[in-house]
Specification:
Order of helices and strands: HEEEEEEEEEEEHEEEEEEEEEEEEE
Number of domains: 1
Helix content: under 10%
CATH class: Mainly Beta
Number of helices: 2
Strand content: 35-45%
Structural class: mainly beta
CATH architecture: 6 Propeller
Oligomer: single chain
CATH superfamily: TolB, C-terminal domain
Distance between the termini: 33 Å
Largest sheet: 4 strands, antiparallel
Radius of gyration: 17 Å
CATH topology: Neuraminidase
Protein backbone atom coordinates (compact mmCIF):
# COMPACT_ATOMS: atom_id res chain seq x y z
CA UNK A 1 0.00 0.00 0.00
CA UNK A 2 1.41 3.38 -0.88
CA UNK A 3 1.91 5.93 1.83
CA UNK A 4 -0.65 8.69 2.01
CA UNK A 5 0.58 10.91 -0.77
CA UNK A 6 0.19 14.19 1.09
CA UNK A 7 3.61 13.72 2.64
CA UNK A 8 4.98 15.56 -0.38
CA UNK A 9 2.14 17.96 -0.91
CA UNK A 10 3.66 21.24 0.16
CA UNK A 11 6.41 21.24 -2.45
CA UNK A 12 3.56 20.84 -4.88
CA UNK A 13 4.30 17.99 -7.27
CA UNK A 14 1.36 17.40 -9.55
CA UNK A 15 2.04 13.69 -9.98
CA UNK A 16 2.06 13.23 -6.22
CA UNK A 17 -1.34 14.85 -5.96
CA UNK A 18 -3.08 12.61 -8.43
CA UNK A 19 -3.74 9.50 -6.36
CA UNK A 20 -5.71 10.90 -3.47
CA UNK A 21 -8.55 8.83 -2.27
CA UNK A 22 -12.13 9.21 -1.39
CA UNK A 23 -14.45 6.69 0.18
CA UNK A 24 -18.06 5.57 0.10
CA UNK A 25 -21.15 7.29 1.35
CA UNK A 26 -24.34 5.95 2.88
CA UNK A 27 -27.91 6.12 1.53
CA UNK A 28 -30.14 8.94 2.74
CA UNK A 29 -30.54 12.69 2.65
CA UNK A 30 -27.53 14.77 1.70
CA UNK A 31 -25.47 16.16 4.56
CA UNK A 32 -22.07 17.83 4.75
CA UNK A 33 -18.88 17.17 2.82
CA UNK A 34 -15.72 16.32 4.73
CA UNK A 35 -12.28 16.88 3.24
CA UNK A 36 -8.63 17.21 4.17
CA UNK A 37 -6.67 20.42 3.69
CA UNK A 38 -3.52 22.39 4.53
CA UNK A 39 -0.21 21.08 5.86
CA UNK A 40 -0.07 19.38 8.26
CA UNK A 41 -3.36 17.95 7.14
CA UNK A 42 -6.59 18.83 8.96
CA UNK A 43 -10.13 17.61 8.48
CA UNK A 44 -12.80 20.15 7.57
CA UNK A 45 -16.55 19.94 6.96
CA UNK A 46 -18.66 22.18 4.76
CA UNK A 47 -22.20 22.35 3.46
CA UNK A 48 -22.67 21.44 -0.23
CA UNK A 49 -23.61 25.06 -0.94
CA UNK A 50 -20.27 26.27 0.43
CA UNK A 51 -21.56 27.57 3.77
CA UNK A 52 -20.63 26.68 7.35
CA UNK A 53 -17.00 25.72 6.76
CA UNK A 54 -15.64 24.29 10.01
CA UNK A 55 -12.32 22.77 11.06
CA UNK A 56 -12.79 19.37 12.65
CA UNK A 57 -9.28 18.32 13.77
CA UNK A 58 -6.22 20.30 14.82
CA UNK A 59 -3.60 17.85 16.11
CA UNK A 60 0.06 18.12 15.13
CA UNK A 61 -0.36 15.21 12.75
CA UNK A 62 -1.68 14.50 9.26
CA UNK A 63 -5.38 13.60 9.22
CA UNK A 64 -6.41 12.21 5.84
CA UNK A 65 -8.79 9.84 4.04
CA UNK A 66 -12.01 10.59 6.00
CA UNK A 67 -15.16 8.47 5.68
CA UNK A 68 -18.59 9.28 7.14
CA UNK A 69 -20.38 6.66 9.21
CA UNK A 70 -23.69 5.44 7.73
CA UNK A 71 -25.73 7.45 10.25
CA UNK A 72 -23.64 10.60 9.80
CA UNK A 73 -22.69 10.79 13.47
CA UNK A 74 -18.97 9.99 13.17
CA UNK A 75 -16.08 10.21 10.75
CA UNK A 76 -13.37 7.57 10.53
CA UNK A 77 -10.03 8.74 9.20
CA UNK A 78 -6.35 7.96 8.91
CA UNK A 79 -3.98 9.80 11.24
CA UNK A 80 -0.28 9.77 10.37
CA UNK A 81 2.74 11.35 11.97
CA UNK A 82 4.38 14.31 10.29
CA UNK A 83 6.62 12.08 8.15
CA UNK A 84 3.84 9.58 7.29
CA UNK A 85 6.05 6.81 8.67
CA UNK A 86 3.36 5.59 11.08
CA UNK A 87 -0.42 5.76 10.64
CA UNK A 88 -3.54 4.48 12.35
CA UNK A 89 -7.32 4.51 12.11
CA UNK A 90 -9.19 7.00 14.30
CA UNK A 91 -12.73 8.32 14.55
CA UNK A 92 -14.33 11.55 15.71
CA UNK A 93 -17.88 12.77 16.24
CA UNK A 94 -19.30 15.05 13.56
CA UNK A 95 -19.26 17.86 16.13
CA UNK A 96 -15.51 17.46 16.64
CA UNK A 97 -15.70 15.62 19.98
CA UNK A 98 -15.06 12.04 21.04
CA UNK A 99 -11.74 11.55 19.26
CA UNK A 100 -10.37 8.01 19.66
CA UNK A 101 -8.12 5.48 18.00
CA UNK A 102 -10.00 2.39 16.83
CA UNK A 103 -7.21 -0.15 16.51
CA UNK A 104 -3.53 -0.39 17.31
CA UNK A 105 -2.57 -1.69 13.85
CA UNK A 106 -0.62 0.33 11.32
CA UNK A 107 -3.67 0.62 9.08
CA UNK A 108 -5.28 3.26 6.91
CA UNK A 109 -7.94 4.21 4.37
CA UNK A 110 -10.93 3.25 6.55
CA UNK A 111 -14.35 2.56 5.01
CA UNK A 112 -17.46 2.01 7.15
CA UNK A 113 -19.61 -1.04 6.55
CA UNK A 114 -23.28 -0.21 5.82
CA UNK A 115 -24.35 -1.39 9.29
CA UNK A 116 -21.73 0.81 10.96
CA UNK A 117 -20.23 -2.09 12.93
CA UNK A 118 -17.09 -2.71 10.89
CA UNK A 119 -14.41 -0.88 8.96
CA UNK A 120 -12.54 -2.11 5.92
CA UNK A 121 -8.93 -0.93 6.09
CA UNK A 122 -5.66 -1.41 4.28
CA UNK A 123 -2.90 -2.82 6.44
CA UNK A 124 0.78 -2.32 5.84
CA UNK A 125 2.53 0.73 4.43
CA UNK A 126 5.32 1.22 1.94
CA UNK A 127 5.27 2.49 -1.60
CA UNK A 128 6.56 0.74 -4.68
CA UNK A 129 10.32 1.12 -4.37
CA UNK A 130 12.57 -0.97 -6.62
CA UNK A 131 9.66 -3.40 -6.99
CA UNK A 132 9.87 -4.33 -3.33
CA UNK A 133 6.41 -3.81 -1.89
CA UNK A 134 5.72 -4.24 1.78
CA UNK A 135 2.77 -6.36 2.84
CA UNK A 136 -0.45 -4.62 1.90
CA UNK A 137 -3.90 -6.18 1.91
CA UNK A 138 -7.46 -5.32 2.87
CA UNK A 139 -8.67 -6.30 6.32
CA UNK A 140 -11.89 -5.81 8.25
CA UNK A 141 -11.93 -4.71 11.89
CA UNK A 142 -14.79 -4.42 14.36
CA UNK A 143 -15.48 -0.84 15.42
CA UNK A 144 -16.22 -1.99 18.96
CA UNK A 145 -12.89 -3.80 19.27
CA UNK A 146 -11.46 -7.14 18.29
CA UNK A 147 -8.93 -8.52 15.88
CA UNK A 148 -8.40 -8.02 12.18
CA UNK A 149 -9.80 -10.34 9.54
CA UNK A 150 -7.97 -10.52 6.23
CA UNK A 151 -10.14 -10.23 3.12
CA UNK A 152 -7.80 -10.00 0.12
CA UNK A 153 -4.69 -11.98 -0.76
CA UNK A 154 -3.68 -10.06 -3.83
CA UNK A 155 -0.07 -9.30 -3.00
CA UNK A 156 0.91 -12.94 -2.57
CA UNK A 157 -1.38 -14.35 -5.27
CA UNK A 158 -0.77 -11.92 -8.11
CA UNK A 159 1.77 -12.79 -10.83
CA UNK A 160 3.07 -9.26 -10.40
CA UNK A 161 3.73 -7.58 -7.07
CA UNK A 162 0.91 -5.20 -6.35
CA UNK A 163 -0.22 -2.43 -4.03
CA UNK A 164 -3.78 -2.79 -2.64
CA UNK A 165 -5.78 0.35 -1.79
CA UNK A 166 -9.11 2.10 -1.38
CA UNK A 167 -11.65 -0.43 -0.11
CA UNK A 168 -15.32 0.58 -0.36
CA UNK A 169 -18.33 -1.49 0.72
CA UNK A 170 -21.32 -2.24 -1.47
CA UNK A 171 -24.50 -0.76 0.05
CA UNK A 172 -25.78 -4.25 0.92
CA UNK A 173 -22.56 -5.05 2.80
CA UNK A 174 -21.91 -8.21 0.79
CA UNK A 175 -19.01 -7.04 -1.38
CA UNK A 176 -16.07 -4.67 -1.48
CA UNK A 177 -14.53 -2.83 -4.39
CA UNK A 178 -10.85 -1.92 -4.22
CA UNK A 179 -7.88 -0.80 -6.29
CA UNK A 180 -4.82 -2.82 -7.28
CA UNK A 181 -1.67 -1.01 -8.39
CA UNK A 182 0.94 -3.09 -10.18
CA UNK A 183 4.65 -2.70 -9.62
CA UNK A 184 6.86 -0.93 -12.13
CA UNK A 185 7.96 -4.15 -13.85
CA UNK A 186 6.03 -6.67 -15.91
CA UNK A 187 3.80 -6.29 -18.94
CA UNK A 188 1.22 -4.33 -16.92
CA UNK A 189 3.81 -2.07 -15.33
CA UNK A 190 2.62 0.66 -12.99
CA UNK A 191 -1.04 0.30 -13.93
CA UNK A 192 -4.18 0.32 -11.79
CA UNK A 193 -7.41 -1.65 -11.98
CA UNK A 194 -10.53 -2.07 -9.86
CA UNK A 195 -11.48 -5.43 -8.37
CA UNK A 196 -14.52 -6.64 -6.43
CA UNK A 197 -14.60 -9.36 -3.80
CA UNK A 198 -17.14 -10.84 -1.42
CA UNK A 199 -16.82 -9.56 2.13
CA UNK A 200 -15.80 -13.06 3.25
CA UNK A 201 -12.85 -13.05 0.83
CA UNK A 202 -14.36 -15.25 -1.88
CA UNK A 203 -15.15 -14.67 -5.56
CA UNK A 204 -12.59 -11.99 -6.36
CA UNK A 205 -12.80 -10.67 -9.90
CA UNK A 206 -11.37 -7.82 -11.95
CA UNK A 207 -13.81 -5.03 -12.78
CA UNK A 208 -11.85 -2.65 -15.04
CA UNK A 209 -9.09 -3.43 -17.56
CA UNK A 210 -5.51 -2.41 -16.84
CA UNK A 211 -5.59 -0.19 -19.93
CA UNK A 212 -8.19 2.05 -18.30
CA UNK A 213 -5.88 2.68 -15.33
CA UNK A 214 -8.83 3.07 -12.96
CA UNK A 215 -8.48 3.99 -9.30
CA UNK A 216 -10.19 5.55 -6.27
CA UNK A 217 -13.62 3.83 -6.41
CA UNK A 218 -16.86 4.82 -4.71
CA UNK A 219 -20.08 2.78 -4.77
CA UNK A 220 -23.39 4.48 -5.53
CA UNK A 221 -26.00 4.32 -2.74
CA UNK A 222 -28.31 2.14 -4.86
CA UNK A 223 -25.49 -0.32 -5.58
CA UNK A 224 -25.78 0.00 -9.36
CA UNK A 225 -22.76 2.16 -10.20
CA UNK A 226 -19.14 2.51 -9.19
CA UNK A 227 -17.50 5.91 -9.59
CA UNK A 228 -13.76 5.99 -10.26
CA UNK A 229 -10.93 8.10 -11.61
CA UNK A 230 -9.17 7.06 -14.79
CA UNK A 231 -5.80 8.21 -16.09
CA UNK A 232 -5.48 6.44 -19.45
CA UNK A 233 -2.33 6.43 -21.53
CA UNK A 234 0.42 8.73 -20.34
CA UNK A 235 -1.91 11.45 -19.15
CA UNK A 236 -1.54 12.69 -15.60
CA UNK A 237 -4.61 14.83 -15.03
CA UNK A 238 -7.36 12.19 -14.88
CA UNK A 239 -11.14 12.33 -15.22
CA UNK A 240 -14.14 10.75 -13.50
CA UNK A 241 -15.98 7.74 -14.90
CA UNK A 242 -18.73 5.38 -13.83
CA UNK A 243 -19.11 1.67 -14.50
CA UNK A 244 -21.95 -0.69 -13.72
CA UNK A 245 -21.31 -2.93 -10.73
CA UNK A 246 -21.17 -5.92 -13.10
CA UNK A 247 -18.34 -4.32 -15.11
CA UNK A 248 -20.41 -3.11 -18.06
CA UNK A 249 -21.13 0.30 -19.58
CA UNK A 250 -18.18 2.56 -18.77
CA UNK A 251 -19.17 6.24 -19.02
CA UNK A 252 -16.95 9.31 -18.83
CA UNK A 253 -18.40 12.06 -16.62
CA UNK A 254 -15.79 14.83 -16.79
CA UNK A 255 -13.54 15.99 -19.61
CA UNK A 256 -10.90 18.21 -18.05
CA UNK A 257 -7.83 18.76 -20.24
CA UNK A 258 -4.30 18.80 -18.90
CA UNK A 259 -2.89 20.37 -16.79
CA UNK A 260 -6.04 20.36 -14.67
CA UNK A 261 -5.73 17.58 -12.08
CA UNK A 262 -8.97 15.98 -11.00
CA UNK A 263 -9.02 13.87 -7.85
CA UNK A 264 -11.23 11.04 -6.66
CA UNK A 265 -14.93 11.67 -6.22
CA UNK A 266 -17.75 10.68 -3.89
CA UNK A 267 -21.46 10.09 -4.47
CA UNK A 268 -23.99 12.14 -2.55
CA UNK A 269 -26.12 10.03 -0.19
CA UNK A 270 -29.15 10.43 -2.48
CA UNK A 271 -27.07 9.26 -5.45
CA UNK A 272 -27.96 12.26 -7.62
CA UNK A 273 -24.78 14.31 -7.15
CA UNK A 274 -21.01 13.85 -7.08
CA UNK A 275 -18.38 15.81 -5.21
CA UNK A 276 -14.72 15.89 -6.17
CA UNK A 277 -11.66 18.09 -5.85
CA UNK A 278 -9.51 19.45 -8.60
CA UNK A 279 -6.26 21.34 -8.89
CA UNK A 280 -5.94 24.07 -11.46
CA UNK A 281 -4.48 27.55 -11.49
CA UNK A 282 -7.90 28.85 -12.50
CA UNK A 283 -9.78 27.68 -9.42
CA UNK A 284 -8.76 24.78 -7.18
CA UNK A 285 -10.97 23.35 -4.48
CA UNK A 286 -13.98 21.11 -3.88
CA UNK A 287 -16.78 20.97 -6.46
CA UNK A 288 -20.18 19.33 -6.79
CA UNK A 289 -22.15 18.43 -9.89
CA UNK A 290 -25.13 16.33 -10.88
CA UNK A 291 -24.48 12.76 -11.94
CA UNK A 292 -25.15 13.78 -15.55
CA UNK A 293 -22.44 16.47 -15.38
CA UNK A 294 -24.73 19.50 -15.12
CA UNK A 295 -25.13 22.13 -12.37
CA UNK A 296 -21.41 22.28 -11.60
CA UNK A 297 -20.58 24.59 -8.70
CA UNK A 298 -17.57 25.28 -6.52
CA UNK A 299 -17.88 24.55 -2.81
CA UNK A 300 -14.43 25.45 -1.44
CA UNK A 301 -11.43 27.30 -2.83
CA UNK A 302 -8.47 25.79 -0.97
CA UNK A 303 -5.45 24.78 -3.04
CA UNK A 304 -5.00 21.60 -1.00
CA UNK A 305 -8.66 20.62 -0.47
CA UNK A 306 -8.72 16.89 -1.23
CA UNK A 307 -9.94 13.52 0.16
CA UNK A 308 -13.62 14.40 -0.18
CA UNK A 309 -16.49 12.32 1.20
CA UNK A 310 -20.17 13.32 1.16
CA UNK A 311 -22.01 12.32 4.32
CA UNK A 312 -25.67 11.76 5.16
CA UNK A 313 -27.77 14.26 7.07
CA UNK A 314 -28.03 13.50 10.77
Amino acid sequence: MRKTLLAGLLPLGLAALLALPAYGTAPGQNGQIVFSSNAPRRLWVINPDGTKLRKLTSARANDVNPDWSPDGSRIAFERCDRSYSSCGVWSINAAGTGLKRLNACDCGMPAWSPNGKQLAVTRGFGGIVDDKIKFAEIFVLNVGGGGLRQVTKVTSASPYSADVDHPVWAPDGKRLVFEVHNSSSGERANRRALFVINADGTDQRQLTPWSLNGSDPDWSPDGKLILFRSVPGREQHGNLYTINADGSDVKQLTRYPAPTALFAGSFSPDGKWITYSRFTSGGPGVFVMRLNGTALRQVSKGLYDVDVDWGPAH
